[in-house]
Amino acid sequence: MKDAILQTFPLGFPWQTQDPFLFCVYHLDHYPKGTNDMGPDPLLLKGRNIGNDFTIKDGWRMYHGQTIPGFPYHPHRGFETITIVNKGYCDHSDSLGAAGRFGEGDTQWMTAGSGVQHSEMFPLLNMDKANPLELFQIWLNLPKVDKFVDPHFKMLWHEDIPVIDEGNAQIKVVAGNYKNTQANAPAPNSWAAKPENEVAIWNIHADANTEYTLPKANTLVTRTLYFYEGSEIYFGDKKVNPNFGIALDPSKDVTITIGSENAHFLVLQGKPIDEPVAKYGPFVMNTDQEIQQAMEEYRLTQFGGWPWPYPDNVHDKEKGRFALYPDGKLVEKN
């Protein structure tokens, strides 16, 4: 079974990925009680590098937030962001006029395409208890032919995301097909929208002291298993500790023996796009010249400007989960 392992590597910040994925980051922040302003007590901000706070202190970070944790407005071009919020909430606002509050298992799928600005803030809505946040953000590349598609915003509500219960394991199928269970459709111009690309994003929770078998893929894809929570796991007699990634041979079923604690995994899989990648911050193109062009266009156009009152825009404290689409359609959840 250990022969199915192509590589193991420690999980840093961000996590190492394989084509067609560009980036994956795991945020786990044990935020305290919130204030009326949906941020932590200002006294807790002392001693932090506010505006660039990426060092875990007291179990949490402010990132680029000033009073509320998160990421104020910033641009993207040439790829997609898939944001899975397992715990806590994220407030989204963008230059298309779209907005939303999602969390507790929801996923947002955004195609940046030709260019979009958005903000992602983490409001601390609970004033009487802690506000834990667990979030994955995954960047999925777009091929050259789709780099300039129109931006697109889509919500995958947790009530609609398939979760397969195999008894000793639960598999959340965010993208792709798992044992003939098909995920909800991704954004229309996504690399994941073509079944032959066999893109999969699965969040797997397996019980302690059991065995879980990851089924093989149908085609030659890249496949990475991220072991982000638990004790030890085994592939045959090969032990792997938590906070490691494992690049796997996709042509084989892989049986994993779970150690003394429940194990949590993220699987990213897909056919490589196999094109040159030029990256600079929030822009991903095929050449350095295209990166320079993206920077110049953003400087001139701001990708449509910013229609919201604040760079770190958050929604009303009493607002529930919702999505406001660019065409004005409003979807509200309880």
TrEMBL record:
Annotated SUPFAM superfamilies: RmlC-like cupins
The Pirin C-terminal domain, residue ranges: 202-304
Organism taxonomic ancestry: Bacteria, Pseudomonadati, Bacteroidota, Flavobacteriia, Flavobacteriales
Protein name: Pirin
Pfam families hit by this protein: Pirin (PF02678), Pirin_C (PF05726)
Signal peptide: none
Stretches assigned to the Pirin N-terminal domain: 62-140
InterPro entries, per database record: Pirin, Pirin_C_dom, Pirin_N_dom, RmlC-like_jellyroll, RmlC_Cupin_sf
Family designation: Belongs to the pirin family.
